[in-house]
Specification:
The structure holds two protein chains of two kinds. By secondary structure, chain A is an alpha+beta fold. Chain A is built from eight helices and eight strands; from the N terminus they run ααβαβαβββββαβααα. By secondary structure, chain B is an alpha+beta fold. Classes of the chains: A alpha+beta, B alpha+beta.
Chain lengths: ~160, ~45
């Protein structure tokens, strides 16, 4: 989210409005906007009907939260870009912005290949935060994702191989 | 997961919800403003 914040002007340049959605309640989303000084809007899906509608509910964490994903939708309401991300891997934002540039020049443009993903290597600060979450909040999910790192890597490598 | 998640070329399911400043948000209304919309689903901070 912080990365999007840094590139927000580029989104505006390509005529794109950004909305981020989670099951966080209003107050928590307001706090996040203030804390991170986010220039885009957060949407609150407390009753989880949107994440259910998009089939993005992860029922195994915190009684159901959103799986990370990105959609870019054109003015006709059609999805022209989709990225289903993991906690330990994601699409490079520069690839997404390159796509937006093409879309800006041709509104009917659609992504023809799944975007390439890169692994997220946790920093020592992230590891410390994840450990605190595990100890004080009983949240094992973050660590679990990173322990599954080799599986994610194998999945990424085989998906690239299959494409060839 | 990817089988049932809306895919490229499909219509994005319309929905109504609230923004963090407690204003109603309707996807189809946002699209009427003539912008592309990036919808980012994130895990949240619980």
């Amino acid at each position: 989210m912080a990365e999007i914040q840094k590139k927000y002007d580029t989104y505006l340049k390509f005529n794109t409005q950004v909305f981020a959605i989670s099951v966080d309640p209003l107050k928590q989303s307001q706090n996040l906007i203030e804390k991170m000084k986010l220039p885009y809007k957060l949407l609150c899906d407390e009753d989880k009907h949107v994440i259910d509608l998009y089939h993005l509910t992860n029922p195994f964490e915190h009684n159901g939260i959103a799986k990370p994903a990105t959609f870019i939708i054109n003015q006709e309401g059609k999805i022209c870009y989709r990225s289903l991300d993991g906690t330990a891997n994601r699409v490079d934002l520069s690839d997404e912005l390159l796509f937006l540039e093409k879309l800006h020049n041709d509104a009917g443009y659609e992504m023809d290949n799944a975007p390439k993903k890169s692994l997220i290597i946790p920093t020592p600060k992230n590891m410390w935060r994840m450990s605190l979450n595990m100890i004080f909040k009983g949240n094992f999910a973050d660590w679990m994702h990173f322990l599954l790192f080799p599986v994610e890597m194998f999945r990424m490598m085989t998906s690239r191989f299959k494409k060839k | 997961m990817s089988i049932s998640v809306p895919d490229i070329g499909q219509d994005a399911p319309d929905f109504q919800t609230l923004t963090s400043d407690n204003q109603p948000f309707l996807l189809s209304e946002a699209l009427k403003q003539g912008h592309f919309v990036k919808l980012l689903f994130y895990r949240g901070h619980w």
